[in-house]
């Protein structure tokens, strides 16, 4: 029994669509304008000069190409931070789901409590602690705090419990395989959809991270893209600073494109992942 | 066998726990330790017991910041979740043309960093290169300035709604997808209309997902930082140094060198967030059983 499609309902829902996409359209159109064009033209239509490719070249050329450096830094933080967080969450989630060991319940309670502790509340204390340890203003200051993802662990625990049958593990043990060999060769393929989901969400969180790098980093050579864009915008609003709104806008567009592409390509995974993570209780 | 299993379980869980201890447990402990001291201009750091806490609870700036995020929570979160619910129900009804396109488009803002979202909306709110300015010029009118002190909180509410309405919609939509469709058919045979089905079947099924979405929104509201911090560069007169508790904690540490008091504020906010989230969870889950 398939419900009939409704034009009025589609039109009403289209308002939400416009609301969601309008700022992105504004950003895309604005990225085609020169700074003069930005000030002198209507925001939702093109100005006379099409400066899109010139703007992209300018973004990468400004200040000896520091934007490229920020892009590489962001990639490093994502690969090491989000990748590492996914690996640690997978190992621990699997460990909690598949081994009944002393202290398991306590571990689970503490980590679940961790889900409710907002990372931002911890950022200032972590900074103070890392400053004592001499870790601030190094890449470690951004990477280490992203490595622990209690929510990722929760998702991986749910996945491991449901997707990896105990019988497979038992037969691998009878064959004499080591537990870690079994994990990487048997369990990881079964956990793949869960792993992709956790990796994707950790990636978004790390790619979009702002508060932590803002606190931890002073050296502009270590900035991720978000902090770099913030500093460009800030310099335009201080007295005597270089006004580069065109670069802020085009840089913003370049910052969001990789994630949007990742989301579109991996739709199937994050949707099933969210379903599993948020609904099963 | 059991000791071997125990050892292996710890090997799998250990690396995560080590990092967790370093970046969750240790900072909480360290903040608690720091909150018991105060740095004085003369005499250096001195143990002051709970003085920082009594100071916080009678600090008008902290109180104003806390009231502001509480107001934000009470107004913005229901609006956002209601919108998310409407879109999720519309998608789930199966009556939309291009439902897949709707779903992914409304979700896309979630992939946009809050820095970019705040910059983008900040520009659009502006009168110089923004849409508000465009409309004013085109019609020769003066719209209320979203970046003015009176409207800035609502302007931030709009940015946060834009960022997270799709995320919450997906959580609710996923909740609706797992409802057994046989229930709808049975209800339809009994003569129930669409609205009756929503009220009697769909909304009760969404109790869990709504609780999850609300808890994440509570945490997000109390921790509000990125959007005001970024708008501060665009609308410096509207964002105070104690606009939200997190902005205040940041300013105390980095603008005022009051690390002990800053740690106290951070700790209080962590505890307040956990308590409110816990109470809400107990109420919403407890009422369901």
Automatic annotation (TrEMBL), chain A:
The keyword Transmembrane applies. Residues 71-266 form the ABC transmembrane type-1 domain. The keyword Transmembrane helix applies. PROSITE patterns: ABC_TM1 (PS50928). Coiled coil: none annotated. Keywords: Cell membrane, Membrane, Transmembrane, Transmembrane helix, Transport. One of its GO terms (biological process) is transmembrane transport. It is found in: Cell membrane. It holds the Pfam family BPD_transp_1. The chain crosses the membrane at residues 7-29, 41-62, 74-94, 106-128, 140-160, 180-201, 210-232, 244-266. One of its GO terms (cellular component) is plasma membrane. It is a multi-pass membrane protein. Its main location: membrane. Belongs to the binding-protein-dependent transport system permease family. This is Putative ABC transporter permease protein. It comes from Actinoplanes missouriensis (strain ATCC 14538 / DSM 43046 / CBS 188.64 / JCM 3121 / NBRC 102363 / NCIMB 12654 / NRRL B-3342 / UNCC 431). The lineage of its organism: Bacteria, Bacillati, Actinomycetota, Actinomycetes, Micromonosporales.
TrEMBL record, chain B:
It is found in: Cell membrane. One of its GO terms (biological process) is transmembrane transport. Keywords: Cell membrane, Membrane, Transmembrane, Transmembrane helix, Transport. One of its GO terms (cellular component) is plasma membrane. Its main location: membrane. It is a multi-pass membrane protein. Pfam families: BPD_transp_1. The chain crosses the membrane at residues 12-33, 69-89, 101-124, 151-173, 205-225, 261-280. Residues 66-280 form the ABC transmembrane type-1 domain. Belongs to the binding-protein-dependent transport system permease family. PANTHER family: BLL4140 PROTEIN, DIACETYLCHITOBIOSE UPTAKE SYSTEM PERMEASE PROTEIN DASB. This is Putative ABC transporter permease protein. It comes from Actinoplanes missouriensis (strain ATCC 14538 / DSM 43046 / CBS 188.64 / JCM 3121 / NBRC 102363 / NCIMB 12654 / NRRL B-3342 / UNCC 431).
């Amino acid at each position: 029994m398939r419900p009939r499609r409704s034009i009025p309902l589609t039109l009403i829902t289209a308002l939400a669509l416009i609301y969601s996409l309008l700022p992105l359209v504004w950003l895309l159109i604005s990225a085609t304008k020169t700074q003069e064009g930005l000030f002198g033209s209507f925001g939702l239509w093109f100005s006379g000069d099409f400066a899109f490719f010139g703007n992209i070249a300018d973004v990468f050329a400004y200040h000896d190409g520091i934007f490229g450096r920020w892009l590489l830094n962001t990639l490093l933080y994502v690969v090491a931070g989000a990748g590492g967080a996914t690996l640690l969450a997978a190992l621990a989630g699997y460990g909690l789901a598949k081994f009944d060991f002393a202290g398991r319940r306590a571990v689970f309670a503490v980590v679940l409590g961790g889900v409710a502790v907002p990372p931002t509340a911890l950022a200032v204390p972590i900074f103070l602690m890392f400053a004592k340890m001499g870790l601030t203003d190094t890449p470690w200051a951004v990477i280490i705090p992203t490595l622990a993802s209690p929510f990722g662990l929760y998702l991986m625990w749910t996945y491991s419990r449901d997707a990896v049958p105990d019988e497979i593990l038992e037969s691998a043990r009878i064959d004499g395989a080591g537990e870690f060999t079994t994990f990487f060769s048997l369990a990881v393929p079964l956990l793949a959809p869960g792993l992709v989901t956790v990796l994707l969400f950790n990636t978004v969180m790390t790619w979009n991270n702002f508060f932590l790098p803002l606190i931890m980093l002073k050296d502009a050579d270590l900035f991720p893209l978000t902090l770099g864009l913030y500093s460009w915008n800030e310099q335009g609003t201080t007295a005597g600073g270089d006004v580069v709104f065109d670069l802020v806008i085009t840089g913003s567009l370049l910052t969001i494109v990789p994630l949007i592409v990742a989301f579109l390509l991996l739709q199937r995974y994050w949707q099933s992942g969210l379903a599993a993570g948020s609904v099963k209780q | 066998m059991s000791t071997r299993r125990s050892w292996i379980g710890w090997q799998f869980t250990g690396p995560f726990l080590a990092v967790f201890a370093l970046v969750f447990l240790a900072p909480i402990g360290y903040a608690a330790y720091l909150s018991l001291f105060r740095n004085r201009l003369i005499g250096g750091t001195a143990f002051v017991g709970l003085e920082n806490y009594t100071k916080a609870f009678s600090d008008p700036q902290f109180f104003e910041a806390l009231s502001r995020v509480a107001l934000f929570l009470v107004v913005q979160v229901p609006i956002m979740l209601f919108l998310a619910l409407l879109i999720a129900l519309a998608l789930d009804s199966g009556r939309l043309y291009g439902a897949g396109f709707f779903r992914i488009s409304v979700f896309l803002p979630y992939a946009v960093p809050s820095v970019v979202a705040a910059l983008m909306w900040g520009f659009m709110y502006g009168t110089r290169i923004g849409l508000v300015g465009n409309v004013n010029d085109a019609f020769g009118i003066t719209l209320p300035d979203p970046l003015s002190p009176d409207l800035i909180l609502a302007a931030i509410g709009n940015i946060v709604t834009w960022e997270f309405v799709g995320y919450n919609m997906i959580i609710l939509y996923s909740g609706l997808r797992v409802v057994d469709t046989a229930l709808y058919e049975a209800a339809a045979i009994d003569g129930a209309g669409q609205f009756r089905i929503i009220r009697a079947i769909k909304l009760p099924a969404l109790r869990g997902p709504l609780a999850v979405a609300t808890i994440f929104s509570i945490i997000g509201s109390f921790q509000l930082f990125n959007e005001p911090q970024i708008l501060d560069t665009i609308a410096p007169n509207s964002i105070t140094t104690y606009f939200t508790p997190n902005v205040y904690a940041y300013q105390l540490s980095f603008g005022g060198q009051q690390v002990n008091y800053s740690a106290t504020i951070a700790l209080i906010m962590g505890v307040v967030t956990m308590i409110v989230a816990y109470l809400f969870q107990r109420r919403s889950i407890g009422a369901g059983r």
